Amino acid sequence: MPEGLEIPADKLQLRLDFYSESIVLTEYKAEARATVRLVSADAIAGALARDLTFSSGLLPPDVLWWQSGRQGSQVALWRPSKIWRVALKEDPFKPARRFRLPMPGLIFLCAPQRPPAIYALRRRPQTPDDRIYQAPTFNTFSGGGTCQGTHKYGEVVSGIPEEFFASYFTSAGDARGRSLAHPRSLLELWEELDGQKEYPLDDLVQQGTVADLMHGKGGTLWH
Q1: Residue 154 class from Cβ within 10 Å (0-12 exposed, 13-18 middle, 19+ buried)?
Q2: CB count in 10 Å sphere of residue 186
Q3: pTM exceeding the 0.70 threshold for the entire prediction
Q4: What range defines the domain where residue 42 resides?
Q5: What's the number of domains the chain is made of?
Q6: For 177-211, what is each residue's pLDDT tens digit?
Q7: Are 24 and 109 in a shared domain?
Q8: What letter does residue 158 receive in the DSSP assignment?
Q9: Residue (of 83, 160, 158) closest to 117 by Cα position
Q10: Would residue 8 count as lying in a domain?
């Protein structure tokens, strides 16, 4: 303490030492005694979190779950099967091709101002064991993350799925392995689906489970 302040010296009570493979807690007690023990990162986080308050705020009705991790908060949005109007830009010097495509139900993992990750399902998920499938969309990587391109996503996550389909699609990402009938050409699938009313669910390519997404084992939002 600065000299002249009539404040008693503060005593060291606890110290954490972080090593490459362990965390050591040293607790200083009366009579110059100290106890030393190993602790886990989870125990430290739990102790500190007792003084914190978390709130998701108001959530739209189509939210499946909300979670917070190392890269911030993430919202899983559900969009039921429907027909989407999309544009595919194959040549930067030519007009975009327009499609009217039926899509299966889709999960979007969203964060403000970030490109989403996207996955297909046969129905709205009921349990963590429900299967997820490759999204049959361009601008999408094999793990589910998507390419932002020149599009700037907004702060409101509830509109990100619509923003994704409203932006121009290109050949960015990996368009292979999205269809059992057309494993090497997503464009052939789109041309076949254009103007149809329903997506052929038996054509979906399996990717994992809902639990994988909830445990952070799906695609990343940070491409």
Answers
A1: exposed
A2: 24
A3: yes
A4: 14-49
A5: 2
A6: 999 999 999 999 999 999 999 999 999 999 999 99
A7: no
A8: G
A9: 160
A10: no
